[in-house]
Design a protein that fits this description.
The complex is a heterodimer of chains A (452) and B (185).
Chain A: H1 2-38, E1 40-41, H2 43-48, E2 54-56, E3 60-63, E4 66-68, E5 73-84, E6 93-95, E7 101-120, E8 126-128, E9 131-142, E10 148-150, E11 153-156, E12 171-174, E13 180-182, E14 185-187, E15 191-196, E16 202-204, E17 207-209, E18 213-218, E19 224-226, E20 229-231, E21 235-243, E22 246-248, E23 251-253, E24 262-270, E25 273-275, E26 278-280, E27 284-289, E28 295-297, E29 300-302, E30 306-311, E31 317-319, E32 322-324, E33 328-333, E34 339-341, E35 344-345, E36 363-364, H3 368-375, H4 386-394, E37 404-405, H5 420-447
Chain B: H1 2-21, E1 51-55, E2 60-63, H2 66-76, E3 81-87, E4 94-96, E5 101-104, E6 116-119, H3 122-132, E7 136-139, H4 140-143, H5 156-178
Antiparallel strand pairs in B: 1-2, 1-3, 3-4, 5-6, 5-7
Amino acid sequence: MVIRKSFCHLRVMLMMFFSLFLIITAYSGSASANTTSKAIPLQPIINAAQIGDSITLAPGTYLGPVQIDKRLTISGEGRATLLNSSPDAEVAVMIQADGVKLQGLNIQQHNGGEAAAIRVEADQVTLKDLVIHTFGFGIMLREADSGVIVNNKIRWFIPKGAASGKRGNGIDLYNSHGSDIRENEISYLRDGIYLEKSRNTKVDHNRLYHLRYGVHCMYINGSSVTNNIGEYNITGAMVMGVSDVMVSGNSFRKQNQNVHSQGILLFDVRTSQIVNNLVEGNRVGIYMQQSSDNTLQNNMVLRNYIGIQFEGSEGNRFQKNAFIANVIEAQATDSKNNKMTRNFWDSFEGLDVSGDGISDLSYAINPFYQQLVTENAAYQLFFQSPGMTFLSDLYTNDKEQWSTDPEPLMQLDSVHADVGQVSEGQGSVMVAGWLLLFFSVITILYMGVLRL
Amino acid sequence: MKKWSLMLMLMVGLLILAACGSKKFEPLAINEEVDICAICNMQVKDDAFATQLTTKDGKNYKFDDIGCMNEWKNKNGTKNIGKDYVRDYNDKEWVEFSKASFVYDETLRTPMAYGVISFKDTASAEAFVKEQGVGSVLSASDLSKHEWKQNTDMMQMDMNGGEGHMDEHKSEEMEGMTSDKEMDM
């Protein structure tokens, strides 16, 4: 009886699965039939248009690839989709005329490798409100100046799959100057925004998730990376080989999935401003290497494994940064002549005799552990072991050469407004602790010790 | 019996000696997940630009561009290098640095813009130059005289002008900073 009942159940289950399967296959079958039968080739529409025309595409599916070689405005109002599945055509949309505007279009680029969904080889091109799914690159600019790339969504077809290093870049600029890249959302690709040899580019208010590098800048003097948000990337912002760059107001959080993750990496960066950034929960908050004469100011460095790491960096001004709840606040090797003043180091026990809010004891960064670990990475096993702490304390070689903050702040500035909550939290813990102690003392006093 | 144990001891001794003497250096495979350039920290892609060296202590360093390996040699010297390898541009086979041929041209695009690519023999390097119409073939010893210039800008003239302007700008900003002015968050 029981056996038969369960068998019955099984049959019902099987039936249900089968019917579900049927429905799914029927649905997907009809969907694919739709796309192929109703897709309208877009190129003839473009060919028929006059220079300067505005084309509004009716909702529906269009077939790529297309080549735009005259000044046109093409708008899809968010409901037109362009497919590019023909394997012969590398690029879905090729723009070769100045002043082309493309907006509100969904683009699906089925070709991979170096193939981009949109490739721009002309100046003053506007790409706005596009939704791009790609197996290759998203938007590629080559020798294309003054482009405007605003409010686009670019992502890989399948969120999981190939390693991020094997995918294409979201927005990729090469030798294209003075572009404006704003409010884009890029995810699951290689580098979100890759800039090479592209001067005076503005990267502002972009959201970058699950990428290799969120923003990757190489040789882009005079550009700015501002107010971007990056999470779960290998590195939030990789800034390399540049001078006079502004990196400000960015928030890079949770870059900690890879053994080489960091919030912001500065390599060979000169005379640049790194101000008002938030780096939180990364493996390394800010990693600075072979960089000189930069200003790092008002950055919030929260809950990272290593807050900030300097290597071979000289002549940087490093002021009013706040270091809170990092496992290792700072590491510095071979970094001389950095002007490091008035930072807040939460684990530092300062002493303020004069009452001016500045500790009279200086904060020095002991390079011992870092040097040891660079020599042999396996010594990380001894992290904070009593022996390591003891040896670090013993090591005072060249102490005057260490990176030192001679006037660390006793308390956080009012400038760091959002940190208020954190210190409040610490206060309540303190109160709770005192209460607990009080009650235990009372208990012991009145109840006496436990007698067996 | 005694003879045997003597033989055995001899054998073991020889084995140990052999193990000591033959310190072999082998190029390691690139793991894109975790390998980063020892100089510039960028991910080392498993492509023809990747290079690597192993020191005599058996430490392996990988680089994303041959220029970065050169930078490492400048910093650490070449005395302690066991073997250094570059890759053939065409089939990605590892080649010893000293036996490889190189092509330099400032227009060649490499990860760190040094513009030097490597080949397993002179013939394939020459074939590349012929095919591309640009570049000059160099040997490993020629590279020691190479200036290792990074091509960071296509229009040098323009950049210099731009930089002068930047400097003015910067000094203004610096003054602003010293006057204790706060940037808004």
